[in-house]
Structure formats: structure tokens, C-alpha cells
Amino acid sequence: MNIDFEKQIENLPKKGNSIKDKLFNKDYFLRSAEFGISTIEKEEIIFDTKKSNNGTLIIIGLAILFICFRFKDSDNFIPILIFSGIGMIANIIYLKFRKSKLIKINLSGFEIENIKYEWDDIYDFGVLVKPSRHITYYELIIFSKTKGKKTYSLFSFQSDKDEILKNLNYFKKKFETSKSNS
Q1: Count of domains observed in the chain
Q2: Which candidate among 5, 45, 79, 153 keeps its CA 20 to 30 Å from the CA of 114?
Q3: Dihedral sign (CA 28, 34, 39, 43)
């Protein structure tokens, strides 16, 4: 047990159940033990932001179709169609050329933002949940014995955040089990 890390974890905000906490969207920390464990049997799992980009493009495309059908009998149809087309092309260019972020998780450890963490170097991890009015942001907090406390935004992985945390738990437990059996 690392007393310094435990003090840092204890000082992180806890989830409150009061009406005040829910009304004012108070940040709170969830430890790794508070998440489930994945049941996927793979040697390595890779989460890529490109998957989220495709979903964004589909939503934008559907919104443009809806707008075009809404105004198809209007005098403004052609300008709206041209503006929407330019907007869609700009989004495709931006999302396709934006640098992709990867999270790789396997039996030896995981890699995030090109930084590798070995499982025996990890004291614990969790997420700082930052609820706001329209969206909830998640930050992965890693307590590493050699690198200290590191924080990584999971904003680009919004659709995969739960799976990332479950897979981190799965591979950490699998590592601890294989370590204790040998």
C-alpha cells in the first residue's frame, strides 16, 4: 500500500448523493474497483478515435439531409444545400486528417498518448467524472509507481469510455492472476 497515493486518492472529490451535488454537477472520482470487468477474450485491445469520427460524420450527414428536406421547397434551398455541402466537406477533411489517438491494452500493460505503463508499475487508476449540463467529461487518472500521478482526457473516446475502463480492469486482473500463479 502506497500511503502517498492513498492520500491523493482520498483528497479527490467523491460522488455525492445529495440534491446539491446533482444540481451543481459536482466532479467526482471513481476508482478502478468501481467499474465492471470486460469479458472479451483477446490478447490486445486497441481503442482508436477514428471510430468516434465516423459516428460524428454520420450524425452530421443525417442533420444535413434533414435540413435539406425541410427547406426543399424554399427559395433558400440551393444556398442551404451549398453551405451544408461545404460544411460536410470541411468536417470530413478535418476529421480524416486529424491525428488519431490510440489506447492499447494488453497483458503486459497499456499505452496511452505514446506512453507505456506496465501493470506492475501501476498502483491504481480511476476516472475523474466531470458532469456538465450537456455532456459528461471523463479523465483517466493513473497512479504509477515510477511516473507518479498522470491524467489523460478521454474526451475523444466518449463512446468507448466504459469499455476502456472495463478492459483495463480485465487485463490488470488477468496480469495479477498469471503473476500469482507463477
Answers
A1: 2
A2: 5
A3: positive
Per the structure block, which three cell numbers stand in for 150?
A: 498522470
Per the CB < 8 A criterion, the answer to whether 172 and 33 are in contact is no
The residues pairing with 105 across neighbouring beta strands, listed in sequence order, are: 45, 110
| Same domain, yes or no: 28 and 57 | no
Average pLDDT over residues 100-111: 91
**Do 60 and 145 belong to one domain?**
no
